[in-house]
Design goal:
Elements lengths: L11 E7 L4 H7 L10 E9 L2 E9 L5 H10 L4 E6 L2 E7 L5 E3 L20 E7 L2 E5 L15
Antiparallel strand pairs: 1-3, 1-4, 2-3, 4-5, 6-7, 7-8
The structure holds cytidine-5'-triphosphate (CTP) and zinc ion.
Zinc ion (ZN) binds next to loops.
Length: about 150
């Protein structure tokens, strides 16, 4: 029998295989729980086939593409499971985009993307796991991505 630490949900989204220790960062970038009235449950350091993982479950809500892109920058191994009537009806791994546009704010105050010009922030992927990104304009590497997600 499978061990169930957090109860299965009826409908909603399970973000699974989050890098252990990163569940709170995932919640922060999704602005949870403040931004929703959904029930949100979190499990950390859960034993899995590949070591440990964190899990976030959001009831009665699905995620948009932008939210999934944000998660990929925090937890590049995460899987997004859509649950309907207790069944997993969709499962996909997050995918880090090669270019990250309008999602992260550059840490360089003099970067053109932080000027009054209407220039959207743009980052290039330097490494995938852990994710490292570099500003397309000023080439500065962003140290703490989770803190700089818009
Ligand atoms: N889950 C849930 N509620 C459900 C169904 C599934 O909370 N009604 C959760 C499971 O606990 C698991 C995730 O959704 O964390 C994915 O479920 P499932 O695909 O059944 O698990 P695995 O086969 O172990 O997934 P994977 O192969 O992606 O590790
Ligand atoms: Zn920059």
């Amino acid at each position: 029998m499978k061990e169930l630490r957090v109860t299965p949900i009826k409908n909603g989204t399970v973000i699974d295989h989050i890098t252990p220790g990163f569940a709170l960062k995932v919640l922060r970038v999704l602005k949870l729980p403040e931004a929703t009235s959904s029930v949100v449950s979190v499990a950390m350091n859960v034993k899995s086939r590949f070591g440990k993982k964190d899990i976030v479950k959001i009831e009665n809500r699905e995620l948009d593409k932008r939210e999934v892109n944000k998660i990929s920058l925090i937890a590049p191994k995460a899987t997004i499971n859509i649950i309907r009537d207790y069944e997993v009806v969709e499962k996909h791994k997050v995918r880090l985009p090669d270019e990250i546009i309008g999602i992260v704010k550059c840490s360089n105050p003099t970067c053109i993307s932080n000027s009054r010009e209407p220039v959207e922030s743009r980052f290039i992927l330097v490494s995938k796991d852990p994710p490292h990104i570099k500003c397309y304009y000023c080439e500065r590497e962003t140290e703490d991505i989770a803190e700089r997600i818009i």
